[in-house]
Every structure is written in C-alpha cells, then in structure tokens.
C-alpha cells in the first residue's frame, strides 16, 4: 500500500531536499503533494522526474493525506500542525515549535527510534535542530560504550541553515565585495561574507543564544537528561554543511582507537580520520551526502576520560530533510500508520 504525502514548505531549502530524498529513497508514496504559501501557488518543483505544481497550504484539505513533512518555520507550524494532525494526518515538523513538548516525540532514528511510539498523543513528531541531529548521531554510540558526562561543542554553521535568504545574502555580499558595491546585511546581524558571526537565533537571559540552548535541551531530551552540554553556535560563510568541534568527558575510560572502531560500526556515521594533510572531512565534502562524518578523533590530554572530535554533516539532509524522511520510514516500517488508520 502506498501513502499520500504532503511536503509543506516545498519551495524552501529543506522542502526541496525532502522531495529529492523521498524520491531517492523510494519512499512508498502513491502521491506526493507540494505545498507552500499562496505566493508560490502554481510554481513548479521537482520530485524525481516529475514536476509538481505548488499548491497553497491554506487551501489544501488534509483529510486523505497520511503524512505531512513540514518545513515552513515555527509560526506556520504552531498554527497549522495541530489542525492538520486533527484531520488524521501525521505531521513531522522541522521547526522548533513542538520539540520541547512532552507529548511530542523528538526523533533521530539512529538514536531514539523507540520514542516514536508516543506520537499518537498529538499526531505530531518533531525533527531536531540541524546541529543537534548530527551531534547526537556521533554521541550515541560513544555514550552507550563509556557514558558521557559532559559535552563542550562549538558549531560552524552554514548559511543554508538560515533558509534561502541566508544563502542569497552570502552570495550577494560576496559578489559585492569583488565588484566594490555597497554591502548590506538583512538576514544576518553583521556581514557574513569573509566573516564569522557568533550569534544564531535570539539572545536568552543568561547570555546564551536560543540556538545554543536548543543543542543542550534537545541532546538531553533524545540522548540522556544527565549529560551536561554547553555550546557556542557560530555562523560561517559556507553555503551547505555544518561542522562541530566536540569535546567529550566520559565516566569510563575510552581511547581514540576504541572510539574510532565504535564509530566505524555506528549507524549513520562515517569515519574519515587519516592524520595527514586532507585526511578529514570539510563541510564542502559533506554537501549532498547522507552520512554524519567524523574526523580528528583524538584523546584530550587535559581530562581523565576525554576525547575531541570533528563532526560534519549536510544540514539540509541529516540536519533536516533526510532525518524527517527517515522518521516517515520508521512510521511505515513499524506499521504505525496502518494501526492508526485501523483504529
Ligand atoms: N535549513 C536548515 O538547515 C534547517 C534545519 C533544520 C530545521 N530547519 C527548519 O525548517 C524550516 C524551513 O527552513 P528552510 O531552510 O527550508 O527555509 P526557507 O528556504 O526559507 O523556506 C521556507 C519555506 O516555508 C514556506 N512558507 C513560508 N510561509 C508560509 C506560509 N504562510 N504558508 C505555507 N508555507 C510557507 C516557504 O514558501 P514560499 O516560497 O511560498 O514563501 C518556503 O517553502 C524552518 O523551520 C527551519 O528552522 C531548517
């Protein structure tokens, strides 16, 4: 049996990638519908060899749609996800709107697939923040082996994490630098071309940014509430691919060789760690790929049981669209949709 799948935000960075990934992975869809705002109604988007006409979200009836993959931002999700879910369609949302709701599972299939069983309380499943998704894929197998006590992570996040407008701003500013045009910053708070900005999302009372808080809160929710996490989130002039320098303190001893062997076998991870020139992964290498890449695995000589890692992934894929499609596959493979319909 095939499913009817709606992609909401189908004209955006994540939505277009969702359409690609549904097709690439042969998701069992009888019909795929592309939805966005009324601004995009009638525009063409690509699903494999097929061209889909974009339809307006607020004119669409979800009553015979099984799954909605949603990537249209937090305010749209808050307004629409409960309405869509009430029509019997399971919503997999990419925004932060429901991630911290106790009745909404927050899922990275390689990490906490079993938590999906709680989805029927609200018919909504949350996809994590892009930085958290790749982080927990790398942390989970190490935590299972040596129990993580504390994580210190510094992120190097690409502009595509801020949507189409973020990519356009890096392109326009870079062009303006070369032709000596005036440079304006609209999407980012300072110039991003040939610069880095230590600020993503809004500031919180303790001086952290919301992005940094999300990495902490989501890692605890998915992996283990006992793990201490501190984060510095930085925007860098890279189009696609988030990188993270990760320092981990464990309760039990673990060597770099042991970590390398564990990560080589771990689902979703790909270790590329030759200690020589170019023997590591950069964000450019990760663009268009599904794996979470791990390089620069080494012991931290300043801690009893400490390791350093370099973790890189395509933020539009593992950080968003791929993970959302994997969640949809989990619903199908565990027959959760059929049970819901039968009920
Ligand atoms: N980029 C990432 O790395 C990443 C990772 C994880 C999560 N996310 C989350 O995914 C969401 C989308 O990100 P993105 O990077 O794809 O942004 P984007 O490129 O700016 O795309 C936004 C999408 O939302 C649609 N949209 C806006 N207002 C709408 C409305 N009123 N009704 C229906 N659709 C509407 C847009 O349609 P129009 O073209 O019609 O305006 C567009 O398709 C955000 O919540 C973001 O936080 C992104």
Task: Give the names of the bound compounds.
Answer: NADP nicotinamide-adenine-dinucleotide phosphate
Report, as a whole number of angstroms, the end-to-end distance. 17 Å
Q: Using only CA atoms, what is the Rg?
A: 20 Å
State the fourth-level CATH superfamily of the largest domain: Dihydrodipicolinate Reductase, domain 2
Instruction: Please count the helical segments.
Output: 10
**Which class do the helix and strand fractions yield?**
alpha/beta
Q: Which overall shape is indicated by the principal axes computed on the Cα atoms?
A: globular
At CATH level 3, the topology of the largest domain is: Dihydrodipicolinate Reductase, domain 2
Strand order of the largest sheet: 5-2-1-6-7-8
| Range of strand content | 15-25%
Task: Quickly give the CATH architecture of the largest domain.
Answer: 2-Layer Sandwich
CATH class of the largest domain, named: Alpha Beta
- Largest sheet, if any? 6 strands, parallel
Which residues form runs of ≥5 with pLDDT under 50? 339-343
| Share of helical residues | 25-40%
Q: How confident overall, as mean pLDDT? A: 97
N-to-C series of helices and strands? EHEEEEEHEHEHEHHEEHEHEEHH
Total beta strand runs: 14
Provide the number of structural domains.
2
What oligomerization state is this entry in? single chain
Subunit structure: Homodimer.
Enzyme class: oxidoreductase
GO molecular function: aspartate-semialdehyde dehydrogenase activity; NAD binding; NADP binding; protein dimerization activity
Protein name: Aspartate-semialdehyde dehydrogenase
């Amino acid at each position: 049996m095939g499913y009817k799948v709606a992609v909401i935000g189908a004209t955006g960075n994540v939505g277009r990638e969702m359409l690609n990934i549904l097709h690439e992975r042969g998701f069992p869809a009888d019909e795929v519908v592309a939805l966005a705002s009324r601004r995009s109604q009638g525009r063409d988007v690509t699903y494999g060899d097929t061209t889909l006409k974009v339809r307006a979200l607020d004119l669409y009836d979800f009553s015979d749609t099984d799954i909605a993959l949603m990537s249209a931002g937090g305010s749209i999700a808050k307004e629409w996800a409960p309405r869509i879910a009430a029509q019997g369609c399971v919503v997999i949302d990419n925004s932060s709107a429901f991630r911290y709701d106790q009745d909404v599972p927050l899922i990275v299939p390689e990490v906490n697939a079993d938590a999906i069983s709680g989805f029927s309380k609200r018919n909504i499943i949350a996809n994590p923040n892009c930085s958290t998704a790749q982080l927990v894929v790398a942390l989970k197998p190490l935590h299972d082996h040596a129990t993580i006590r504390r994580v210190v992570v510094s992120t190097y996040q690409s502009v595509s994490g801020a949507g189409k407008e973020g990519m356009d701003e890096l392109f326009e500013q870079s062009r303006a630098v070369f032709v000596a045009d005036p440079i304006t910053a609209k999407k980012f708070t300072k110039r991003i071309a040939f610069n880095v900005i230590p600020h993503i999302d809004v500031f919180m009372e303790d001086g952290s940014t919301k992005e940094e808080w999300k990495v902490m809160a989501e890692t605890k929710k998915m992996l283990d509430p006992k793990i201490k996490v501190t984060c510095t989130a930085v925007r860098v002039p890279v189009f696609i691919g988030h990188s993270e320098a990760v320092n981990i303190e464990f309760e039990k001893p673990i060597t770099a060789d042991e970590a390398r062997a564990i990560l080589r076998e771990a689902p979703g991870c790909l270790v590329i760690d030759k200690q020589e020139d170019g023997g590591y992964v950069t964000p450019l290498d990760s663009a268009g790929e599904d794996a979470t890449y791990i390089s620069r695995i080494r012991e931290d000589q300043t801690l009893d049981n400490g390791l350093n890692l370099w973790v890189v992934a395509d933020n539009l894929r593992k950080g968003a669209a791929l993970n959302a499609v994997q969640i949809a596959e989990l619903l199908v493979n565990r027959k959760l949709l059929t049970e819901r319909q039968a009920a």
